[in-house]
Amino acid sequence: MRKQPAAVDAAIARSLADARPVSYWLDQPDAPEPLPALAGTTTADLAIVGGGFTGLWTALLAKERDPSCDVVLLEGKSAGHAASGRNGGFCSASLTHGIANGMERFPHEMPLLERLGEENLGAMAETVAGYGIDCDFQLTGELSVATANWQLDGAAEAVATARDLGYDATLLDQDGIRGELDSPAYVGGIVHRNRNALVDPARLAWGLRRACLDLGVRIHEHTTVREVSGNGPGLLLRAGYGAVRARSVALGTGAFTSALVRRVGNWIVPVWDYVLMTEPLSAQQLASLGWTHRRGASDMGNQFHYFRLTRDNRVLWGGYDAVYYNGGQRGDDYASSPATHLKLAEHFFTMFPQLEGLRFTHAWGGVIDTCSRFSAFFGTAHRGKLAYAAGYTGLGVGATRFAAQVILDLLEGADTERTRLTLARSKPVPFPPEPLRSVVIQATRASIARADRNEGKRDLWLRTLDRLGLGFDS
Ligand SMILES: Cc1cc2nc3c(=O)[nH]c(=O)nc-3n(C[C@H](O)[C@H](O)[C@H](O)COP(=O)(O)OP(=O)(O)OC[C@H]3O[C@@H](n4cnc5c(N)ncnc54)[C@H](O)[C@@H]3O)c2cc1C
Hints:
Helix content is 31%, strand content 23%. By secondary structure, the protein is of the alpha/beta class. Strand 1, helix 2 (53-65) and strand 2 (71-74) form a beta-alpha-beta unit. Helix 1 (10-16) packs across helix 9 and helix 2 packs across helix 10 (399-412). It starts with 9 loop residues before the first helix and ends in a 6-residue tail after the last helix. The protein binds flavin-adenine dinucleotide. Flavin-adenine dinucleotide binds next to helix 2, strand 3, strand 12 and strand 16.
């Protein structure tokens, strides 16, 4: 059941009245024209399903590894239309959904994971520059802001751990954080000056798509793959009006992966995350924020907002509610949620009262492939001829490039530093089947909200999940 908005504040409602229900990033006048759908039967060395970041990076890197590899990419709608074109554009070096989560799940591997993540982010920057991708990629660093003192419990230790792992991180008091970004709500925070970038995600997807085409990748959009099956020494992919016979197959199908490899449905749940974009700020409004280094930011509650500036000085404001619709709804009917958008708008003006009167131009949602360990997992099917990556939860913009390398390593049967990682070899704890799945997830969401109202105190349910190494996040 979707929640209906309760009593609505008129000023908040007005701020949203003209918001277009589509991703701001995808709603740009120079969005590329769709490429023709697959028609008839073709062959390829490597067939890739999905034109989000995972699929596009896999195609690009396959061509960079071996220019003679014949690659075809099939996308059900248009490249970047799903999570990859709807996200916040926070591009982190972290492969583990942040340091704290990584330390909890892969403590011994973290120095290596952080090195690989930093190299991955550096390689992304090189690709963007090398192919001339105009996606506003900027190594801004990142802020974590506390709006209540309890959120700073453990912050000094978190900074020490981050520094040990090579981050240029500092704990900030109230004046320090308000010197980075000014809100009367802030009591302190953390600044990470390195290993985090901001990007226009749709432009990154479109730029990768262009680079793939230039290297000879054949891309077909509006081509949904219905089935992958064995076909002699290779595999057969059936799609609407065509088919591909391929030696190997890579899936970058995000929250939709279980449609092609059923068992993946045990490990991921589709979680909806919602976002607002404001109109461009005037010079005076921008000055009132004092957003000195234009770093992307998030607040430190369990239910957190993430926020950032765009090239033309709009503010993107998203997160907080991470909604699981019972039964695991993935359809685009859920991309608009007035109740959550109103809540986000209300929180925005509480955080930045100096922006009263500002209006939102876009309000949208996207589906996240959440797994219980919050970081991507990898697998193969059809006797190693198909490989996939999924489960990035809310931090896949950077990690998808790394995942593409793992996918290609797995398809080559290569033994690499990447394939030896516990991160690459292990799977998350599965979610229970429905209807228990919905009951467990909704109970967890309610407990998380209660913890935020109760100075961060985790109830018995959350403590039990913590002990079992299980979680729910966006
Ligand atoms: C609202 C929101 C905010 C986020 N914010 C951030 C952020 O700031 N930073 C960050 O790091 N991460 C963020 N994320 C997560 C990040 O966007 C994802 O982890 C990442 O984009 C995943 O890319 P992907 O290619 O694996 O999946 P997707 O982008 O979902 O792409 C999968 C593609 O596969 C296609 N497909 C699926 N099934 C088929 C089929 N059978 N046949 C053909 N095509 C198929 C789909 O149409 C889709 O285009 C956010 C996600 C959302 C939704």
